Amino acid sequence: MRRNRLAIVAIAALPLLIAPRALDAQTLDKQLQKALDAGDMDAALKLAAIDESPADVRFYFLDMVRECAVEMTCKVALAPLSAKAPRALDGAELPAPQTGWVVVTQKSKDGTGSGKTEMPYGTIGGKPMVLGARLTAAKVASLRASSNDSLMDEALAQGIYDSKLGERRTDWKKVATRLGAGGGEFGAFLVRRAEALKKAVAANDPDAAAAAGGRWAAMVFGAEGFEGPVPLKARQAKLRAQSMRFLRDVKVLGGYQLGDDAMLTVEAVDGAGWTARGPILVSRNEDGFDVAGDLTIAYPK
Fold first, then answer.
1. DSSP-assigned beta bridge partners for residue 104
2. Which CATH architecture has domain 8-136?
3. H/E/C letters for each residue in 146-160?
């Protein structure tokens, strides 16, 4: 269960800090432990500087809180910076210098698995905080400069799986039908889905999300899990965490269709409030339409 996260950070007290601040630093682990035990996302967010972080960082942090309350038994401890070398952040940076690690040791309540989450921490405004990585100015500029056409070309070059051929096809631009603004029925589905998920999040309604989001959402937010009924509170926690990854205000600029698949270029807003754009793969099956892949990029507005 080791997670591959865009860094999250926390801070250990240094010997040279004045006593009150050192005492504050030593309570970070206790405060986070309390929040994780209760599954209190609001309390945990007060301990984390992730307001400038991408949606995925925010999702992983909130989902850790959810897991520790529902699925895992978690123990929080602080470790010095020397305990582990800082991660190399490609195109990202921390909002404050790292001075230590918050280590969350996890064991599944059913005894089937275990893991460890290591989050860097530092001091912001005199308060020890878990630090979420943010994009560097150079990375933001690079993302802004990426054209929608180049993002589509990159996605098509990777190939799209053709179930009839049993292999990836990289010749879409030659054989697929070009779609205009709106993306036809594939695009109309994508817009409806995004709007329905937005409403489900606003209403804190996992049943609505399960109905709107296709097979994946039905599995994640459904009232029945592999081991029986899933409590509403647990499903609502999943919805809050996953909403960071949802796109809203979707505009379909065009794309390509080949048979029952369409690669669409979209512009939208993600759960962090950032601009999200690029290609999304929508497929049609016996149950209707569903999202099959997402290669969008995101950056602050």
1. 117
2. Roll (3.10)
3. CCHHHHHHHHHHHCE
pLDDT digits (tens, 9 = 90+) for 92-144: 999 999 999 999 999 998 878 899 999 999 999 999 999 999 999 999 999 99
Q: What are phi and psi of 174, to 5 degrees?
A: -90, -35
Q: Where in the chain is the domain with CATH 3.10.450?
A: 8-136, 146-299
Q: Which amino acid is at 228?
A: G
Q: State the helix-helix crossing angle for 232-242 and 214-221, rounded to 10 degrees.
A: 140
The closest alpha carbon to 221, from 210, 205, 234, belongs to: 210
Q: Which of 148, 136, 84, 115 is nearest to 2 (CA)?
A: 115
Backbone angles phi, psi at 35, to 5 degrees: -65, -40
State which fold the 146-299 domain adopts: Nuclear Transport Factor 2; Chain: A, (3.10.450)
Q: Where are the beta strands (DSSP E) in 55-195?
A: 72-80, 92-93, 100-108, 114-124, 127-132, 134-135, 160-162, 167-169, 177-179
Per the CB < 8 A criterion, the answer to whether 234 and 70 are in contact is yes
pLDDT of residue 235: 96
